[in-house]
Amino acid sequence: MPVSKLSFKISKKGKRLLIGLAVFLFLSVTGAVSFAAYCNHVVMSCSKYCYRDIEKFPFHETALLPGVAKIAPSGRLNQYFKGRTEAAAKLYHAGKIKHILISGDNSRKNYDEPTDIKNELISFGVPESALTLDYAGFRTLDSVVRAKNVFGKSRYAIITQPFHAERAVYLAREHGIEATAFYADEPLPYKYVLRRNRRREKLACIKAWLDINILHKTPKFVK
After folding, report:
1. How confident is the model over 131-151, as a mean pLDDT?
2. How far is it, in rounded angstroms, from Cα 163 to Cα 83?
3. pLDDT at 18
4. Which residue in 29, 36, 30 sits closest to 201, CA to CA?
5. Which residue of 11, 64, 105, 126 has the fewest C-beta atoms within 10 A of its own C-beta?
């Protein structure tokens, strides 16, 4: 009889533990989802500073063009590279920007995003005198902050694809920069790539919020 009562008591305790664990997991998941949604909402609210129509795009003395690899992993021309360089050339020839700061990665031998972009823009008729290169734009945060701290630009346009533009503007504005963005074309034929990038961007928005509000990240090279 005592053994029976003891097993009953253990069973009730186990149920309470399971219920408590279930409640904890539910609250944890709900909290994580709510936090992710909040971060994405804050970052995506910067869409009000982004433009698609070149006619409505305000004049900027300087545009920041974040780096991107010229050649995709497939060995073909990277469509994001194509979209950004074509958009930058279009804005320049339309008189919407006067100077382009190209900020990209040159951390490895035989990998030089800024020079590849510069050469492409020159082939589109943009004079080399209108181009400045930043070889330490290893990520979006580095590019937008260095544009201000190293190159003295506190107001500029950012030329990039829609999935990336809001985050770039958010990081810039959180560092006291009057930034807007112009949407470059996305590679529409590769819808699976777009879906993957947009999923990745949701995580990147969380990291951007954390970098600004919790981690207080700075560029790898501040000068």
Report:
1. 97
2. 13
3. 83
4. 36
5. 11
Single-letter amino acid, residue 92? Y
Spatial distance between the Cα atoms of 81 and 32, rounded to a whole number of angstroms: 34
Residue 223: its pLDDT value, please? 76
Distance CA 35, CA 41 (A): 10
Asked if the model's pLDDT at residue 90 lies above 50, the reply is yes
Q: Kindly list the distances between the CA atom of residue 46 and the CA atoms of 3, 43, 148, 191, in Å, as whole numbers in the listed order.
A: 65, 6, 19, 24
CB 86 within 8 A of CB 216: no
Query: Which residue stretches of the chain are H helix?
Result: 2-44, 79-93, 113-123, 140-149, 162-174, 191-210
- For residue 194, name the pLDDT band (cuts at 50, 70, 90): low
DSSP 59-80: PEEEEEEE---SB-TTSSBPHH
Please give the pLDDT value at position 1: 46
pTM of this structure:
0.86
Spatial CA neighbour of 68 closest among 86, 49, 42: 86
